[in-house]
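Figure 2 data, in text form.
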Amino acid sequence: MHAWPASEVPALPGQGRDLRIHDTATGGPITLDPGPVARIYVCGITPYDATHIGHAATYNAFDLVQRVWLDTKRQVHYVQNVTDVDDPLLERAERDGVDWAALAEQETQLFREDMTALRMLPPRQYIGAVEAIPGIVPLVERLRDLGAAYELEGDTYFSVEADPHFGQVSHLDAAAMRLLSAERGGDPDRPGKKNPLDPMLWSAAREGEPSWDGGSLGRGRPGWHIECVAIALDHLGMGFDIQGGGSDLVFPHHEMGASHAQVLTGEFPMAKAYVHAGMVALHGEKMSKSKGNLVFVSRLRRDGVDPAAIRLALLAHHYRADWEWTDQVLQDAVTRLGHWRAAVSRPDGPSAETLVDEIREALANDLDAPAALAAVDRWAVAQEQQGGTDMGAPGIVSRAVDALLGVAL
């Protein structure tokens, strides 16, 4: 599966700072010091309703991570998956009377187009669950051979008790885990499981559903969590720098994935930091496919909204915050974009050396994009009210905003 084209990242004078970011597993900030190649895995979409603002906010956060690392003169090895076979996708295809594979490809392509328009830097590997199946089956078989998996009526489950570190990503109690498992794709009430929280590794073939050869597991399809584990281990290995996604993935997805990987490898932890973006609401409720209260990037673009304004609307909120999309949020972003473009269109202006440092410092401090935007606002106000004599300043500001914030002026 291919990703989307990369936009050029302008080179800036000087060098950025190491990223200090909030780690869900420890509950506090940590400073990451990757080697020459920083490694990040971000969980991708299930392609049946793409791309809504909640998606865009999440991928914007991890695009900033890439940009901060690139500014430190590192390379970035970014991997993202596409869950192109899963129950929600199959249910949507059946509801709409369409082929599930065609629906997945259609929505994945729309996602690519939206990411391109928003200037999100693409992953080095963009891997679908279906194409990862040949690598998933041996991992499930290995977990079974290690005594960490068991069969129940043809399905194969992971035993959470096989991982002594289980629970160290989310730090939730058993009752909270069970509730979230039921809400987010698990089956805690299924009779016969060793532990209600045990997640599916391999689902045996069911009539009317797609299935693949699972070797000794029989025909079927992979569970949700093992998909990401197989892709991450194949391309990044253990101990990569960031495991990222929305805050709704903390449990069960990232908790279970960490346990799968840790049992498979005997190493801990799977990732140095678990980083999660907040949720976006509309009319007082979290945007969700089940509720249908979604604002789509593609529709905004069709309505003539500049993608740079959409990106500025996302950047106006700290990535970890839960926030609400409103017409005013978008209008504020449109106004800001116009103000910035007017400021950099002049032939000279106030010095921008301090501004570049301010943007770098803000982003290195747990991706504080609102502080970075406020710094650019101050420069733009100074440009409007006082002007300046630095002939290179508007160009430096334009390049910095593009390189570090992904906004083309």
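Caption note: Residues 18 and 364 are 6 Å apart (CA to CA).
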